[in-house]
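Below is a filled-in request sheet from our internal design queue. Each sheet records the structural input a requester submitted and the sequence that came back. We keep these sheets so that new team members can see what a complete request looks like end to end.

REQUESTER: design group, bay 2
PRIORITY: normal
MODE: inverse folding
CHAIN LENGTH: 423
BACKBONE (tokenized):
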């Protein structure tokens, strides 16, 4: 890495999140001088061809391209489940691996990246078990590698403003709240039906984790117990999955957050999903309130013909998360807290490597550890060191939903763990 101020990026996973967020962000970082080469690895090449041929991406980033693994000339039916290992092994040390896989596949890819001395950006949640998060934290720290978890709601200006006011005591103390994130019904006909199964994950783990993390981010409170109940259904291919879930998270101060999630927002609806957060707080003789209507931010469009994934004509527009807009340069540029989250993590990796480039090995390692510790302490970017409570929540949620909603307590201290209240 010495001698260059750009980082190479390998994305593992070519699905929806890569198309809708990750690749556009990284293409823009490539043309602004943060990223150099881009490789994308997937199980097979149809999703890679879809990324290459995307009219939206071509329009926004003319002339830019990535190296596909497997190659475009391989048979579409050929699968390469271990190709990501070869792709990561071929990278020069201390660049970046982006993990954009289903939740249950994060751990082996992250471990492969760390083994080959790569920094990591991982889509949320990091992993599904607390012990794995701790293992990743320690191994990465030993090697001076940065691990950033892409909880992009932390970069929403609304969340940052709420965090600042909460820290100043302007709301009082959080006591009761509810959150909701209902993703589109059409997800049921996507690749979700192949991995979003009862034995692997559920809507609370998949998207509810955003709001549990966000409440902790705003308040500094840690979750203390979790209870999740799900409603099962069948995907078009016959696989059984939790289509709906409701979680009840009690925080260490006794505050309660209800979280409702699902794969069921109407395809004909005005929004691409439904998501919101309400938090009531107790003060001295009065109460405070934080209320975010995230699916609707005061912008409505009615088109002459249906556009977008569901093809609806009337749309609630969220311009704050992620949009491709005109700018002074070529094509379009990404804006919003989704981009700022990816930029923040990869920018941190870029800064760590730029600041330690050319240093002796021992001094460089020590300085990288210092820089990583600074990010951990600031708490803006989620890392294994500052957000592993999320893995405890995920572990407790999976235990609870498979026990039909039994309460699972989170025990902190010297040996953090989850314990079913009624064994």
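RETURNED SEQUENCE:
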């Amino acid at each position: 890495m010495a001698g260059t101020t750009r980082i190479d990026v390998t994305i593992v996973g070519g699905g929806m999140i890569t198309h809708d967020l990750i690749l556009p962000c990284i293409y823009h970082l490539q043309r602004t001088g943060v990223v150099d080469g881009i490789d994308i690895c997937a199980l097979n090449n149809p999703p890679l061809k879809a990324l290459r041929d995307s009219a939206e991406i071509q329009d926004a980033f003319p002339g830019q391209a990535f190296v596909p693994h497997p190659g475009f000339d391989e048979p579409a039916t050929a699968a390469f489940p271990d190709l990501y290992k070869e792709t990561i092994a071929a990278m020069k040390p201390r660049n970046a691996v982006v993990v954009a896989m289903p939740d249950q596949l994060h751990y082996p890819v992250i471990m492969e990246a760390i083994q080959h001395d790569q920094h990591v950006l991982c889509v949320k949640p990091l992993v599904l078990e607390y012990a794995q998060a701790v293992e990743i934290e320690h191994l990465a720290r030993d090697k001076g590698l940065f691990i950033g978890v892409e909880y992009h709601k932390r970069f929403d200006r609304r969340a940052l403003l709420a965090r600042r006011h909460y820290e100043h005591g302007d709301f009082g103390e959080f006591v009761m709240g509810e959150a909701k994130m209902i993703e589109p019904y059409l997800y049921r006909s996507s690749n979700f039906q192949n991995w979003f199964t009862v034995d692997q994950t559920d809507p609370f783990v998949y998207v509810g984790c955003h709001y549990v993390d966000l409440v902790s981010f705003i308040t500094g409170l840690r979750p203390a117990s979790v209870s999740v109940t799900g409603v099962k259904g069948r995907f078009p291919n016959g696989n059984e999955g939790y289509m709906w879930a409701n979680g009840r998270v009690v925080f260490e101060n006794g505050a309660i957050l209800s979280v409702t999630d699902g794969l069921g927002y109407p395809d004909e609806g005005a929004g691409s999903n439904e998501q919101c957060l309400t938090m009531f707080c107790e003060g001295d003789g009065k109460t405070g309130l934080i209320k975010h209507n995230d699916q609707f931010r005061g912008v409505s469009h009615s088109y002459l013909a249906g556009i977008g994934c569901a093809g609806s004509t009337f749309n609630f527009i969220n311009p704050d998360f992620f949009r491709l807009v005109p700018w002074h340069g070529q094509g379009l540029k990404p804006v919003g807290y989704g981009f700022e989250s990816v930029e923040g993590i990869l920018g941190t990796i870029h800064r760590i490597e730029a600041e330690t480039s050319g240093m002796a090995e021992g001094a460089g390692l020590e300085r990288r550890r210092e820089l990583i510790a600074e990010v951990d302490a600031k708490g803006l970017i989620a890392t294994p060191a500052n957000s592993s409570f999320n893995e405890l929540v995920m572990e407790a949620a999976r235990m609870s939903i498979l026990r039909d909603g039994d309460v699972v307590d989170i025990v902190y201290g010297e040996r953090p763990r989850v314990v079913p209240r009624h064994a």
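SHEET NOTES:
- The chain is about 35% helix and 30% strand.
- The two ends are 51 Å apart (CA to CA).
FILED BY: M.R.
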